[in-house]
Design goal:
By secondary structure, the chain is of the alpha/beta class. It is built from 14 helices and 21 strands. Strand 6 and strand 7 form a beta hairpin. The chain binds cytidine-5'-monophosphate (C5P).
């Protein structure tokens, strides 16, 4: 039999949410991997799962109240110093807020504040609470301080809603915890952090192509890789913004700390953008939206021969212009950024687009022949009402930073 992995010590913190029952499986999973586990619960958590369950699983006293264990007058310090990782699962919006503020009004939050080990939180809550700007700002504050976050899953929620906020499966949480134990973040927490100049701002980004169905298997689309939009989302999140990334189908991982809204068609992208942009400070439309879609998509596969009439001539209709629609309803102070990917007269076309679409900034770049699409570098000219700024060829991550800086300046 293979030996379990080294005996890491994990303090599991459980807070008051229906997903608390899944913490039993997390504790078991950590133990199966060879970890020693102790549990600390909030008072509210004990309403969902009785501490007796965790005492039976861990063979340890379960810590709840600050003054519960007279044999250990400074229980929060001994727990905090005992563990190699403090994993709070599930972590409620309330506890995320307390951690963000440094509140220490019960045993769990006091232990978290006193804990020199890495802290990992797995938030779980109703989708509207999860999307609430106050919660997202608090979570962003934790990430900035180096707290490890297990992003919530999307799906069916205990309250009956379907959306983001579900606790991921226990196995996935255990895997993240073991990763962190094997490769802990630097103990001195000297993470190189980007300047937090976008903290408090809400940024919406569209990315990737849209796909427009011809029938059940065929579609009209384009070569967009989504790299530029994903670089913008990652850059904005790293600089402290609350980011919603509305993405067509791409082969890229979601950047850390970004809420991704997956879409397929232009009309789905417009609907998601209209909702996300309501409270946005900056909206960047980096998606390569298909300008046209088949007018009569079939819901089955059209057959060569039998359906030649439908396949020989595919009637196309114009898709809505997402950028122009949003920019037309722009609030004062809201900044709208578009892209102009052209093969000819790039800057001139970008200037026309700036005016016709009522954008504040157009990023003009040349496409075709392996340029821009799918590449990691890009050469762009930024076009605003104040003039043009020709940038050198640079990695898309750097270009993203310049675009975000200019967008922020335009919003002042
Ligand atoms: O008009 P054109 O497609 O060249 O404009 C490109 C810019 O407009 C990009 O920022 C793109 O994301 C946006 N766009 C859009 N909806 C469309 C077409 C383009 O948002 N239907």
């Amino acid at each position: 039999m293979t030996e379990p992995s080294p005996s890491y010590r994990v303090l599991v913190g459980i807070t008051g949410c229906i997903a608390a029952y899944k913490a039993c499986e997390v504790v078991r999973g950590l133990q199966r991997a060879g970890c020693q586990v102790k549990v600390v619960m909030t008072e509210h958590a004990t309403r969902f799962v009785d501490p007796v369950t965790f005492r039976a699983l861990t063979h340890e006293k379960v810590a709840v109240g600050l003054f519960d264990d007279p044999s250990d007058p400074i229980h929060h310090i001994s727990l905090a110093e005992w563990c190699d990782l403090f994993l709070i699962v599930p972590c409620t919006a309330n506890v995320v807020a307390k951690l963000a503020c440094g509140l220490a009004d019960d045993l769990l939050s006091t232990t978290a504040l006193a804990c020199p080990a890495p802290l990992m939180v797995a938030p779980a809550m109703n989708m509207n609470m999860y999307a609430a700007p106050a919660f997202q700002d608090n979570l962003a504050a934790l990430r900035r301080r180096g707290v490890l976050v297990v992003d919530a899953d999307e799906g069916y929620q205990a309250c009956g809603d379907v959306g983001r906020g579900r606790l991921p499966e226990p196995d996935a949480i255990v895997a993240r915890a073991l990763e962190a134990l094997a490769d802990p973040p630097a103990a001195d927490a000297t993470r190189v952090l980007a300047p937090q100049d976008l903290a408090g701002l809400s940024v919406v980004i569209t990315a990737g192509p849209t796909v427009e169905p011809i029938d059940a298997v065929r579609f009209v689309s384009n070569h967009s890789s989504g790299k530029m939009g994903y670089a913008l989302a990652a850059g904005a999140a790293a600089r402290g913004a609350r980011v919603t990334l509305i993405s067509g189908p791409v082969a890229l991982d979601a950047p850390e700390g970004v809420q991704v809204v997956p879409v397929r068609t232009a009309r789905e992208m417009l609907e998601a953008a209209e909702e996300a942009c309501l409270g946005a400070n900056i909206a960047v439309f980096a998606a390569a939206v298909a300008d046209y879609r088949p007018a009569h998509p079939a819901d089955r596969k059209l057959k060569k021969g039998a359906d030649d009439a439908a396949l020989d001539h595919i009637e196309l209709v114009r898709n809505p212009d997402i950028l122009a629609t949003i920019a037309a309803a722009k609030r004062p102070g809201q900044v709208v950024v578009g892209f102009a990917a052209e093969t000819d007269d790039v800057v001139e076309n970008a200037r026309k687009k700036l005016a016709s679409k009522h954008a504040d900034l157009i990023v003009a770049n040349c496409v075709g022949d392996g340029v821009a699409f799918g590449q990691d570098d890009d050469q762009a000219t930024l076009v605003t009402a104040a003039g043009d700024e020709e940038l050198p060829l640079m990695p898309k991550a750097e270009l993203a930073d310049v675009i975000l800086t200019r967008a922020k300046e335009l919003g002042r």
